[in-house]
UniProtKB/TrEMBL annotation:
Residue ranges of coiled coil: 504-592
Quaternary structure, from the entry: Homodimer. Binds to stalled ribosomes, contacting rRNA.
PROSITE patterns (alphabetical): SMR (PS50828)
EC nos: 3.1.-.-, 3.6.4.-
Protein name listed in UniProt: Endonuclease MutS2
């Protein structure tokens, strides 16, 4: 790729930002070496890797490569059988720790199926956790080996500790002795040449037995090793040697283990370096909200809302640029500082970034073409050393571009042939562009020459473009408008700034009439195009609002359905709970009444009345809890004379149907039979029902009811932990529901225990007419702990 174009389009600045995103020295080196490719397959592979890494960043957060260093020298030493240092072994352990973290990161996908372009890299990582743990167990730091590294090292260090204690005790007694007080220069213990000594005055050297190891600069103090501790010092020295030997043996053993896994470790290092490089590209893309461009080999470019990555994202104005489909050359005109050069650099830099596998800061589905080279002539290239003017410098570069550009090249020219006579410059510019257009070179150029506008209008395959200028504020909007040549705003700007009108009119008279008409036509075209774009933008916004409203309504409909289903489910559950409680209460009352009726007495009669009062009280509480409030219709009020014995009624407080069994009393209370439950209900809580008409398709409706019930009835019932009475009551209700649900077989779980519950259940089953047979479970069904019932 053309190095001058890379520098002019500021590609090295993008690479500098990319390097900052990498963590390891090897990853940073790969970033520094990254150059645009001309191979479509290679580009698409890079783009896929960047996109998949970016997706993982958004889903699972960052993957850390901190601590990853180049271990190639260590691997070379292992290859010749050398031992590694503690620091190198710790770096190996860090490599394995990062590999383990990376594999765990790859498994974070909840779906468990994240087969993207990075999966093969994560899958090929070798965790080697035992080796990592062994190194971490033996080595605590670069200069510290753990006592637990080996039993021998632990014993040696224990001996060193014990010897040190003996030695210090002996020296302390010597220093503390009153006999030696006058001979000591200081009452301290010091070390010289690796041996413990005591500072003795020079005049007592003959009186203090021991070995002299050093003396002070003045010579007044001698550092003497007392004879009493010479053996202990010798022993300590010997133990230190043994400790060093054992540490070398431990490091050699660990190095041998590492050497055995050398190939996998080298592969881990290569994979993690590649991942660091790939995730650096993804991190860079995330920093400017980049997207993956779609590449083609048809020289087609379509950038949607592109933003120059080196400009402040809060200030930069997004631009839309397209060429290569209907035209291969774009000529941009407009005022200075209007955004022409930024547009030129943006499309050039996007091409380089995309072909290097980097995402671009634009909307998704933006398109880029694969070019074999990018050439650019942008900015002031004046060279004092070579005695070249601005025009000469630009022309030298343009000549080089004309010589090297091919039909697969992309050429960017800023202020073509500027800095010279306008007439000659315009003619030269047209000739250069004609040459490039004739060779079918994709080109984008900026100019001030009005002659180039006419050239673009009259030549097939060349299109005009301009940078919009707001006359109200006398400032550019930086929006690129393709299909419309830029017009001169000199007269309008001068008038806004206060130049006398007669001077402006005089200036207009100096311009050829055809040129003046052409400028007026451009102004009208620009006004119309701006109006059309605003209308299109308004239509697009309304379409977006309509789509958003549609999605909102669909979401609300789903939520309403879910809420309705939830309310119905809760209501059914509450009704089931109420019916269950009512049945249990009724069964208990009947059992008590049956017991009392066998022994008629005044006391039993009182008990029966008390029980009836208790039931009425309970029904009253239920009435309060389930007070029926109609919000959709006004309930019809009935009179006492409306009710007759045998009428079908709906009890609103219980949400149950029943039959009137007595006439209302003075308070409006009457008896209603609801299945096995008979209760006193006030007429204000009753609604008269119309007599039921014969149904034509009873079989179908019954099937539907049974189907709905069977959907909620379990094929087994668990009676574990219940008393016999509780179990039989619950079993009675369950068997009724199961039978009505058309279940053919159910399982009763009663456990083995003492066998009392099993016997009670089976005795109860013998009395039920709707049960065909029952048996104890076999192996695999629960054996004697369950009973299998067939209806």
């Amino acid at each position: 790729m053309n190095e001058k174009a890379l520098r002019i389009l500021e590609y090295p600045k993008i690479i500098e930002r990319l390097v900052e995103c990498a963590a390891s020295p090897m990853g940073k080196h790969l970033c520094e070496q990254l150059m645009p490719s001309t191979d479509l397959n290679q580009i698409q592979t890079w783009q896929s890797e960047t996109a998949d890494a970016l997706s993982r960043l958004y889903k699972f957060g960052n993957l850390s490569f901190s601590g990853l260093i180049d271990l190639t020298p260590a691997f070379k030493r292992l290859a010749i059988g050398a031992s590694l240092s503690a620091g190198e072994l710790l770096s190996i352990a860090k490599l394995l720790s990062i590999a383990k973290t990376a594999k765990q990161y790859a498994r974070t996908d909840d779906d468990g199926d994240s087969n993207d372009s990075l999966s093969y890299l994560f899958d090929n990582l070798a965790s080697l956790t035992p080796l990592m743990l062994e190194i971490q167990r033996c080595i605590l730091a670069e200069d510290e080996i753990s006592d637990e590294a080996s039993k021998t090292l632990k014993d040696i260090r224990r001996q060193i500790k014990q010897t040190n204690i003996k030695l210090h005790n002996q020296l302390t007694s010597i220093v503390s002795s009153q006999n030696n007080k006058n001979m000591l220069q200081d009452a301290i213990i010091t070390m010289r040449n690796g041996r413990y000594c005591i500072p003795i005055k020079q005049e007592y050297r003959g009186s203090f037995p021991g070995m002299i190891h050093d003396q002070s600069q003045s010579g007044s103090t001698l550092f003497i090793e007392p004879m009493a501790v010479v053996n202990l010092n010798n022993e300590l020295k010997e133990l230190a040697g043994k400790e060093e030997t054992e540490i070398e043996r431990i490091l050699a053993g660990l190095s041998e283990q590492v050497a055995y896994e050398k190939e996998q470790l080298e592969e881990n290092l290569d994979i993690l370096t590649s991942l660091d490089f790939i995730f650096a590209r993804a991190t860079l893309a995330k920093s400017y909200n980049g997207t993956e461009p779609i590449f083609n080999e048809d020289k087609r470019i379509n950038i949607k809302q592109g933003r120059h990555p080196l400009l402040d994202p809060k200030k930069v104005v997004p631009i839309n640029i397209y060429l290569g489909k209907d035209f291969s050359m774009l000529i941009v005109t407009g005022p200075n500082t209007g955004g022409k050069t930024v547009s030129l650099k943006t499309i050039g830099l996007f091409t380089l970034m995309g072909q290097a596998g980097l995402h671009i800061p634009a909307l998704s589905n933006s398109e880029l073409a694969v070019f074999d080279n990018v050439y650019a002539d942008i900015g002031d290239e004046q060279s004092i050393e070579q005695n070249l003017s601005t025009f000469s410098s630009h022309m030298t570069n343009i000549i080089s571009i004309l010589e090297n550009a091919t039909e697969n090249s992309f050429v960017l020219l800023d202020e073509l042939c500027g800095g010279t006579d306008p007439m000659e410059g315009a003619a030269l510019a047209i000739a250069i562009l004609s040459n490039l257009h004739g060779k079918q070179v994709t080109t984008m150029a900026t100019t001030h020459y009005s002659e180039l506008k006419s050239f673009a209008l009259s030549t097939v395959g060349i299109e005009n473009a301009c940078c919009e200028f707001d006359l109200a504020t006398l400032s550019p909007t930086y929006r690129l408008m393709i299909g419309l040549p830029g017009k001169s705003n000199a007269f309008a700007i001068s008038q806004k700034l206060g130049l006398e009108p007669y001077i402006i009119e005089d200036a207009k008279s100096q311009i050829d009439a055809s040129a003046r008409d052409f400028e007026e036509m451009l102004a009208e075209l620009e006004t119309r195009k701006i109006a059309i774009e605003k209308e299109q933008e308004e239509i697009y916004k309304k379409a977006e609002q309509a789509e958003e409203l549609r999605r909102s309504l669909e979401q609300k409909e789903v939520e309403l359905k879910q809420k309705r289903q939830e309310i119905l489910t809760n209501a059914r559950q509450q009704a089931r709970d109420i019916l269950t409680e009512a049945k249990e209460t009724a069964d208990e009352a009947i059992r008590k009444y049956n017991g009392w009726s066998k022994h008629t007495s005044q006391n039993n009669t009182k008990k029966m009345e008390a029980e009836r009062s208790k039931l009425r009280g309970k029904m009253g509480e239920l009435d309060k809890q389930l007070a029926y409030k109609s919000t959709t219709k006004t309930k019809k009020r009935h009179k006492p004379e409306d009710f007759k014995i045998g009428d079908s009624v709906f009890v609103t407080t219980l949400n149950l149907k029943g039959t009137v069994t007595s006439l209302p009393n003075a308070k409006g209370d009457l008896y209603v039979q609801m299945g096995i439950l008979k209760s006193v209900v006030n007429i204000k809580n009753l609604e008269l029902l119309e007599p039921e008409k014969p149904k034509q398709n009873n079989q179908t409706s019954g099937y539907k009811a049974n189907f709905m019930k069977s959907a909620t009835i379990s094929p087994e019932i668990n009676l574990l932990g219940k008393t016999v009475d509780e179990a039989i009551m619950e079993l009675d209700k369950y068997l009724d529901d199961a039978y009505l649900s058309k279940l053919t077989q159910v399982t009763i779980i009663h456990g083995k225990g003492t066998g009392a519950l099993r016997s009670a259940v089976q005795n109860y089953l013998k009395k039920q007419k709707h049960i065909k047979s029952f048996r104890s479970g076999v192996f695999g069904e629960g054996e004697a702990g369950v009973t299998i019932v067939e209806f």
